[in-house]
Design goal:
Number of helices: 0
Structural class: mainly beta
Strand content: 15-25%
Strand order of the largest sheet: 1-4-2-3
Order of helices and strands: EEEE
Number of strands: 4
Shape: globular
Helix content: under 10%
Largest sheet: 4 strands, antiparallel
Number of domains: 1
Radius of gyration: 11 Å
C-alpha cells in the first residue's frame, strides 16, 4: 500500500512540508478560494480545517493538472 495523501484534524504529518486544504466532500477537483496553507514538520499535528468536509493534502500533491 502507498503512503496516505489526505489528512484530517489531529493526524500527524508524515513528512515536513507545506499542506493545503482541499476539496468539498470527495471532489478534490473543486477549486477552493484562498485555501488555508500551513507548514508542518514531521510529527506535527494537523489543525482544524475551515470546513468539516475538507482535508489536508501536501501542496505538490494537491495541484490539479
Amino acid at each position: 500500500m502507498g503512503e496516505r495523501t489526505e489528512f484530517e484534524e489531529g493526524d500527524k504529518a508524515p513528512n515536513p512540508g507545506v499542506y493545503v486544504e482541499v476539496g468539498e466532500g470527495r471532489s478534490f477537483h473543486t477549486q477552493i478560494q484562498d485555501p488555508k496553507r500551513i507548514t508542518l514538520e514531521q510529527g506535527d499535528t494537523f489543525p482544524e480545517t475551515t470546513n468539516k468536509n475538507r482535508k489536508w493534502k501536501k501542496e505538490e500533491k494537491a495541484r490539479v493538472h
